[in-house]
Amino acid sequence: MADLHGNDPVKFDNGTADALSTALNGAAESIEGQAGSRQSYVTTATQEFRGHFSELFAQNASTAASDGSTIAANLRTVAGWVDKMKAAAERENARRKEARDWEAEYADRNFFEWVHDKVAGAPVPPTVHHEDAPTFDQATGPSTPRQTPNPGSGGGGGGTSSAKPADLRSFATGSSTLNQSLDGKPAGLRGKLIDFRVEVLLGAHRRDEPGERLRAVDHRQRPGRHLGEHHRRRVRCCRR
């Protein structure tokens, strides 16, 4: 009979994985949900904006929108990786359970069944084919540089720039409010990632190690960069 030992369940915390996947998708939804409002603020600011700085403003706004879409896409990509790992663990555990169930049933056979095995041959255990661990392509999407001329630098060779101050203030205020609504997202995601690393990737046998817990707490306390940072495209207007 084949040796079916080594088929203990894969230690994978589904709850922790689900929490991380939900947080990643939620952060992506928050960024995507702001796209319309951000574009509206840009449209308002550019109505009376003229000159070289208006062109830089438009370029930076386009860069911010593109970066936001890329960030959201990468967050969803990582969420998909978590879901893929969870599904792989579930399939592996199903295969291992089949082997364990067969082994338990075989060990529980009565005397007459054992005699039958001696005469007719023992039953053939299930063939357990373990799949390879899932692999993932590297996520891409570096932050795109933006144009940030120095205050008082003038039109930069493009003539005089002018704008309606109230429109620019509306853009700055609205964008700041949207950025603030994203401020807690990096810290929240970092906490979920640390939980996933401790509870899932390191395995149950290391979950209660004091050193690992202290490292997890240390990571949670580190300040994170704002997701809204990529949306903060400021252009200082020199009105002449």
Overview of this structure, please?
The chain is mainly α and 240 residues long. The chain has one domain (14-126, 146-231). 60% of the residues lie in helices and 0% in strands. The chain contains 7 helices and no strands. It has helices at 14-33, 35-45, 52-107, 111-120, 165-181, 185-201, 210-221. Helix 2 (35-45) packs antiparallel against helix 5. The longest helix is centred in the N-terminal third of the chain and has 56 residues, at 52-107. The N and C termini lie far apart (90 Å). 20% of the residues are buried. Residues 207-240 have low confidence and may be disordered.
SSE topology:
Elements: H1 14-33, H2 35-45, H3 52-107, H4 111-120, H5 165-181, H6 185-201, H7 210-221
Helix pairs in contact: 1-3, 1-6, 2-3, 2-5, 6-7
Helical content class: 55-70%
Report the total helices: 7
Spell out the helices and strands N to C.
HHHHHHH
Main sheet summary: none
Percent of residues in beta strands? under 5%
Number of strand elements: 0
Q: Whole-Å distance between the termini?
A: 90 Å
Radius of gyration, whole Å:
29 Å
Notable features of this structure?
240 residues, mainly alpha, 7 helices, disordered C terminus
